[in-house]
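[step 3/7] fold_predict: job queued, chain A
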Amino acid sequence: MRLLLIRHAQTTASRDRVLDSGPPGRDLTELGRQQAEQLAEDLATEDIGALIVSDLVRTQQTAAPLAARLGLEPQIHADGREIFAGDLEDATDQQSQELYARTAFSWVEGDRSARIPGGESGTEVLARFDRQVERAVSATEQSGRTVAAIIAHGAVLRVWAGARAAGADATFIASHPLPNTNIIEVEGSPREGWRLVSYAGLSAQQIADGIDDSRAEEVARDERQGTFGG
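[step 4/7] structure written:
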């Protein structure tokens, strides 16, 4: 099975680099709504059997055009939320951003007990997002289709892929933000495990081979949209 892990479209928080992780979260910007429409067009021919979103409004707003195009009803679950920023919620300063990022990517390196101040540990985050993935897979299997789609949030998608997908380069993922409405594609199953297929349009092979600086800058452009907490 193919699993599409899709970051939501732009919000004011991602545009302004605000750590925004709690419910209900901020709405999409006008650009974000355009991005959601483009996402629906881009994925219109995919054999998607289930569309799973978090209970933060930005994922539901991003999913709406795609759901209408495919004739699917998005399933809403809190397990797909962004990594909770805890004491860092609503922070805009560089120090808070770096602490959030450093803690989250320590989980990919194996320190799952590390906890964001006032927030979650890696063990907790990965367990709940595993449940979100299992929902998507189960619903897709029941539909008889071959592609599951989850619309979620930049940090949790990157951390989950780095921790769970074979072939995912943790260093690359940590240093290359996932732009709004871009996709991490993996294939496999919860039983057999997952393998990275592509990240933001780059194949796993391209990442393994190394990419030129101009392409790296293109992938990293989301630094200007807000890397985490969105």
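[step 5/7] annotate
The chain has a mean pLDDT of 92.
The domain at 2-224 is CATH 3.40.50.1240 (Rossmann fold).
exit 0
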